[in-house]
Structures are given as structure tokens and as C-alpha cells.
């Protein structure tokens, strides 16, 4: 038996005996490491002539290849053995109840905005938009509230400290009515727009928040009048509250941008301590509306001799509170998880 045969036999028997992966690593380095057994034999090549080198080199290679093959084979066997051991000791209880994961909730205002948009779209209204950061021209002047008009003081306006332009001081819009002007200017009549957006007023208590949400509706067509406005509002409310019958009452009022103007009351009754719409003999104020003032139409580039306008404005929080029984307005914006879990809506996938 040559020295190489002996080396091969002893290496293979060590590999054979080895029973864990850690030991495998040390066996590998004892054989192939810097001062390993194969490395030592390879050192001998240096002292040989060309023919000797070729012969011994070839023999060493055969031994090396065999040892490497056996090492790899054993390595994968041991790996499999350890994996099986691990799988045997750990187990997954597939019958255990799944852990609860919260996917968040849909905010009531988001839900109601969607409901409103769906109803108005079904009446042929198209969604319009405008900036939250407005100026005096669009928020007041174009809506028939010239400089120093007393109606400007009805809105507690947040003025914004950036340089004024020829359109006056900059401000956070106090209502969505300026969108009427933007929408009319960007399109040619007839118009049928609605808009849902945030508005801002310096006011805060249980029934007022500095930011709230309004829906604005605008119709500009030939031969339209108050009867159409009444139909739109009544049928909007019927669909919104999902009732067959519902009465509204129009009370004369004042808005600078409509003439005549009215405030709309909706009928309701109390059943088991809860407000029910569509029955009863009580009235609740729900929105403002009117026939658009000719000056407003002119500011929207509409010929006021040919067209009439109808407009209405609702508070989205108020509609939401009435439909879903939410009493304190401030809670809409406080991001309290308990509130959201009570009043929020589940995602439907
Ligand atoms: N912009 C009014 C407000 O914020 C609401 C309103 C009233 C809008 C009458 C209208 C309207 O379009 O016709 O108080």
C-alpha cells in the first residue's frame, strides 16, 4: 500500500465516522488546510523533476478528487439528517386561530363623500375641483361680495401670510363656492357640477371645527328654476337617507351669491330615541341654496340673459352625523382609534 493509498484510506474512514456538520468542517481543514495532510504531500512536488511531478501530481489529484467527493456526499447527508431532526422537533399547529391583523378603517367622511358623489353623478353632475389656498377674488368678490361687503365678516377667515396679488389677499377658502367660478371659467355652459372639499374657518367648539367639509352643487342651464332645485335636493336627500318619502321646507334666507336664497329644512321624527328621516313633524336645517346671482354667472363668463343658475351647499360632517349618529364634530379629526373602530367602515375587497 503506497503512502497515498494509506492517506486516502484514513481520510475516508474519518469521514465515514463523522456524525455532525461541525466536525466535517474541521476534517476538511485537517486534510486541505494550510498544513493539511494533502497540502504536505503536495509540498513534495517541489523537489521532483518534471516526470516525477507529473506522475505524483496525477496520483495526488485522484486522491484529492475522491476525498472531496466523499466529503461533499457526507456533508449533504448530514445536512439532510439535521434538517429532519429539526422538522421532527418543531411543528406548526395549522388548526390554531389566525392572529388578528388590523387593516384600518374607512373614515366616515370618506364613506359619505363617496355616497354623495355617487348620488350626484347619477343625477348627471360632474365632479369639479378647486384649490384650498384661495384669494379674495374667488372666495368673495366673484361671488358677489365686493370689498367691504358685510357678508365677508360672516366667515371667520384664515388669511395667509404670503404676498397679495391683483386678486387680493391669499386665504384658506371659507367655503366650496369659489369652485363654482373656477368650474364655469374652465368650461362652456350648460354646466352641472358638484364638488366635495375641505373648507377653513377660525372657529372651534362641539359643533364647529376650524376645518370641515362641504359639498357644492351648481347647475347652469336654460329655463331652470327653483322647482328644479327643490327636486334635486329632495331626491338627493331621499337617496342619501335611503327613504321613499321625505319632505323639505324652503325658508327664505340670504346668501350674496344667490337671489333668491333659501335655507332647506328636512322633516324627521323620533323613534325609540333616534332621529328617523322621512317621517314625523320636526324640521332640521340641512343646507343652503338659491338661484345663482347674475353677477356670479357673469364672473363665470356665462351670459346671464340666456342662462339661469341653481346652487346648493351642504356640510358633509352634518350629513354624516345625521346618518350615522355621530354627535361631536371635533372627533372627526382627532384620529382616535377607539372612535375609528366604532364609526369607521370595513374595507370590502
Ligand atoms: N357657501 C355657503 C356657506 O358656506 C353655503 C351655500 C349656500 C352654498 C347657498 C351655495 C348656496 O351654493 O347656494 O355658508
What can you tell me about this protein's structure?
The chain has 349 residues and is an alpha+beta fold. The chain has 2 domains: 3-89; 108-343, 2-Layer Sandwich (BirA Bifunctional Protein, domain 2). 40% of the residues lie in helices and 21% in strands. The protein has helices at residues 3-17, 21-32, 37-43, 50-89, 108-122, 136-139, 178-186, 226-241, 294-299, 316-324, 337-343, and strands at residues 126-127, 133-135, 170-172, 191-200, 211-221, 248-255, 258-271, 274-277, 282-292, 308-315. Strands 1, 4, 5, 6, 7, 8, 9 and 10 form an 8-stranded mixed beta sheet that branches. A two-stranded antiparallel sheet has the order 2-3. α1 (3-17) packs parallel to α4 and α5 packs across α10. It is elongated. Bound molecules: 3,4-dihydroxyphenylalanine (DAH). The site of 3,4-dihydroxyphenylalanine (DAH) has 11 residues, from β9 and β10.
Amino acid at each position: 500500500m503506497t503512502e497515498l493509498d494509506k492517506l486516502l484510506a484514513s481520510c475516508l474512514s474519518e469521514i465515514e465516522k463523522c456524525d455532525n456538520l461541525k466536525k466535517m468542517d474541521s476534517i476538511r481543514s485537517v486534510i486541505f488546510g494550510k498544513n493539511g495532510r494533502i497540502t504536505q504531500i503536495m509540498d513534495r512536488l517541489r523537489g521532483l523533476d518534471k516526470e516525477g511531478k507529473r506522475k505524483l501530481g496525477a496520483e495526488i489529484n485522484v486522491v484529492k478528487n475522491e476525498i472531496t467527493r466523499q466529503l461533499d456526499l457526507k456533508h449533504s447527508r448530514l445536512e439532510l439528517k439535521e434538517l429532519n431532526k429539526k422538522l421532527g422537533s418543531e411543528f406548526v399547529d395549522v388548526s390554531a386561530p389566525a392572529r388578528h391583523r388590523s387593516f384600518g378603517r374607512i373614515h366616515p367622511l370618506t364613506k359619505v363623500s363617496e355616497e354623495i358623489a355617487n348620488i350626484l353623478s347619477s343625477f348627471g353632475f360632474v365632479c369639479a375641483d378647486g384649490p384650498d389656498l384661495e384669494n379674495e377674488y374667488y372666495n368673495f368678490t366673484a361671488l358677489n361680495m365686493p370689498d367691504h361687503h358685510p357678508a365677508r365678516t360672516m366667515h371667520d377667515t384664515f388669511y395667509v401670510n404670503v404676498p397679495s396679488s391683483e386678486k387680493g389677499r391669499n386665504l384658506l377658502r371659507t367655503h366650496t363656492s369659489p369652485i363654482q367660478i373656477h368650474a364655469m371659467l374652465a368650461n362652456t355652459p350648460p354646466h352641472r357640477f358638484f364638488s366635495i372639499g375641505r373648507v377653513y374657518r377660525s372657529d372651534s367648539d362641539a359643533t364647529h371645527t376650524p376645518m370641515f367639509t362641504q359639498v357644492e352643487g351648481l347647475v347652469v342651464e336654460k329655463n331652470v328654476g327653483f322647482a328644479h332645485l327643490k327636486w334635486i335636493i329632495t331626491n338627493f336627500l331621499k337617496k342619501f337617507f335611503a327613504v321613499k318619502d321625505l319632505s323639505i321646507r324652503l325658508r327664505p334666507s340670504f346668501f350674496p351669491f344667490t337671489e333668491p336664497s333659501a335655507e332647506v329644512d328636512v322633516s324627521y321624527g323620533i323613534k325609540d330615541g333616534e332621529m328617523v328621516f322621512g317621517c314625523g313633524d320636526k324640521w332640521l336645517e340641512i343646507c343652503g341654496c338659491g338661484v345663482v346671482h347674475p353677477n356670479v354667472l357673469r364672473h363665470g363668463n356665462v351670459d346671464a340673459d340666456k342662462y339661469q343658475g341653481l346652487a346648493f351647499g351642504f356640510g358633509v360632517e352634518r350629513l354624516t352625523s345625521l346618518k350615522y349618529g355621530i354627535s361631536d364634530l371635533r372627533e372627526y379629526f382627532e384620529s382616535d382609534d377607539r372612535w375609528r373602530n366604532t364609526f369607521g367602515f370595513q374595507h370590502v375587497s
